[in-house]
Amino acid sequence: MPEGTRAVLEGNEINRALTRIAHEVLERTKGGQDVTLLGIPSRGVPLARRLARLIERVEDRTVPAGSLDITMYRDDLRSAPVRALGRTEIPVGGLDDRVVVLVDDVLFSGRTVRAALDALGDLGRPRAVQLAVLVDRGHRELPIRADYVGKNLPTSLRESVTVRLDETDGYDAVLLGPARPSPSTTLNRRPAAEEPPSSSPSTTEGND
């Protein structure tokens, strides 16, 4: 684990948070009959599939789960490095008149969710759209709020939140550590001698 980084959630705690979210989804959607779960790549996808399995255990029926790539809908395409396109998988039956629950790992500025809503609008007409996140770290830049939250985690802009999942990383954890400069910030940084004095530290951070 990098210096200055600590785990704020580990395997059992993540499982409990997801189990609670699954029950909240069932309660709010009256049994989840019309629910479709769409994970936002990358780690939102395995989280969506876990939620689907948890709901299936309670209701004893299959819950559609897929993925929604938002790469081409992001508002930083011009300034950010080239991103690999992800995969969009819409379950059989489509999205029309469904209750679509978008699933992501960390909610930060809200820009990722805004992009997901734009992408969703091109794929169907859901009856309702809800948002489930494992971690809400605050610092919203857009008027977006999660319907289901595993953990509300107060953070500063000098900190980063990283989610690790068994499906993608070999273990489950939510890590809190020092903020990482974004690639665009690093590439555009002038030599130290040329930088003007600043009254505040850099607050660039990678979560959206």
From TrEMBL:
Keywords: Glycosyltransferase, Transcription, Transcription regulation, Transferase. A motif (PRPP-binding) lies at residues 100-112. One of its GO terms (molecular function) is uracil phosphoribosyltransferase activity. Residues 195-208 have a biased composition (Low complexity). It is an enzyme of class 2 (transferase). Residues 7-152 form the Phosphoribosyltransferase domain. One of its GO terms (biological process) is regulation of DNA-templated transcription. InterPro entries: PRTase-like, PRTase_dom, PyrR, PyrR_bifunctional. It holds the Pfam family Pribosyltran. Its EC number is 2.4.2.9. Regulates the transcription of the pyrimidine nucleotide (pyr) operon in response to exogenous pyrimidines. Also displays a weak uracil phosphoribosyltransferase activity which is not physiologically significant. Belongs to the purine/pyrimidine phosphoribosyltransferase family. PyrR subfamily. This is Bifunctional protein PyrR. It comes from Nocardiopsis sinuspersici.
